[in-house]
Write a structure and sequence with these properties.
Length: 124
């Protein structure tokens, strides 16, 4: 079993910054991708960003390109999402996810394993 623990998030102002982090533990696959999906009230879940543990390739959805950065943060099993130039439309619950690399491509909308979610609220 894989456990994902998220931290960070909270409230911010438009134009500001927030950071999310996610640490995986347990029986993680030998290679995998980790990333974030978000779900705003009344909207479908949206893939935000992902990173491959092998090679470090990243993928971002168009709406956050140039504003968000996903990176491996220190320990191999920790990934962070730096969110800059925040917009009110970034308000959502953000879920960390992990998927074996063999089935991970692009910016996943779902992951094999997911965290509990953390709220991000951006005010104008």
């Amino acid at each position: 079993q894989v456990r994902l623990v998220e931290s960070g998030g909270g409230s911010g102002q438009a134009g500001g910054s927030l950071r999310l982090s996610c640490t995986a533990s347990g029986s993680t696959p030998s290679t995998y991708c980790m990333g974030w999906v978000r779900q705003a009230p009344g909207k479908e879940r949206e893939g935000v960003a992902s990173i491959q543990t092998l090679g470090g390739d990243t993928a971002m959805t168009d709406s956050v390109m140039g504003r968000f950065t996903i990176f491996r943060d220190g320990a191999e099993n920790t990934v962070s999402l730096q969110m800059n130039s925040l917009k009110p439309e970034d308000t959502a619950i953000y879920y960390c996810g992990l998927t074996p690399a063999r089935i991970c491509g692009g910016v996943p909308h779902t992951y094999t394993y997911s965290g509990q979610g953390t709220q991000v609220t951006v005010s104008s």
